[in-house]
Q: What sequence folds into this?
């Protein structure tokens, strides 16, 4: 359904049951799948590929040109998965010739005034709270939550199921399954509440606690901690995931810190 006073390019590929409210603008190289709702005053620019049953609220701008001086107008994409919500005045820039696309996964909540820069990868079921700012090339893995007004430095990676406190400056990689807060950003225990909500049992959370005890509380350097973790039994997918994340951390991982139950989003 397309209301009057919309500005839709005739080349845009829009499923029949998409709702587009008045004063929305849709460029030509855009594809929008079925069941998606586009609110008034949304701008969806060339390169946008928007999945099924998404909700995009007033003032959002999707697939704007990268804010990168190296961008020379190359044809790149912004890919939004299914069932994702993008709230008021969020901005998501398309990719550059690095990855050629910016990607936001399925079932993601992007709250108001969030900025997702060029070549970012946001996984499934993530939550970016109001005012979060992702610089270029940031990667956010599945189920991660980033608290309001946090700023994430370019090329940083945030692990699956991690939770970052509001107002954080994220300069280094944040490993999976943990909570992080304070300034400078520090380890604050595993994300126990989030993990329980997602079905992780007591045995699994105990395993994760032991892994992060070795990393952050045992007086070991990173190489020593990784060696001891690799020797732990049993061999599990979560252990492998954490080890590989830390080995591949381009920015290094966040510092150690005491556990703090008060850290939230």
A:
């Amino acid at each position: 359904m397309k209301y009057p006073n919309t500005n839709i390019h005739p080349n845009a590929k829009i499923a029949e049951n998409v709702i587009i409210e008045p004063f929305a603008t849709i460029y030509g190289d855009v594809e929008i799948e079925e069941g998606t709702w586009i609110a008034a005053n949304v701008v969806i620019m060339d390169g946008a590929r928007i999945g099924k049953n998404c909700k995009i609220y007033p003032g959002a701008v999707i697939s704007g040109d990268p804010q990168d001086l190296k961008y020379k107008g190359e044809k790149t994409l912004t890919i939004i998965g299914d069932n994702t919500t993008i709230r008021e005045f969020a901005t998501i820039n398309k990719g550059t010739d690095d990855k050629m696309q910016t990607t936001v996964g399925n079932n993601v909540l992007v709250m108001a005034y969030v900025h997702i820069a060029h070549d970012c990868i946001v996984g499934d079921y993530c939550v970016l709270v109001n005012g979060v700012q992702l610089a270029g090339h940031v990667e956010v893995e599945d189920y991660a939550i980033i608290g309001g007004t946090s700023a994430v430095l370019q090329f940083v990676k945030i692990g699956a199921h991690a939770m970052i406190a509001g107002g954080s400056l994220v300069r280094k990689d944040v490993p999976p399954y943990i909570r992080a807060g304070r300034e400078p950003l520090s380890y604050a225990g595993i994300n126990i509440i989030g993990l329980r909500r997602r079905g992780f049992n007591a045995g699994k959370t105990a395993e994760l606690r032991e892994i992060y005890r070795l990393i952050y509380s045992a007086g070991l350097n990173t190489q020593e901690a990784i060696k001891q973790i690799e020797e732990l039994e049993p061999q599990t997918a979560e252990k492998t995931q954490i080890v590989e994340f830390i080995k591949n951390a381009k920015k290094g991982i966040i510092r150690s810190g005491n556990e703090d139950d008060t850290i939230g989003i």
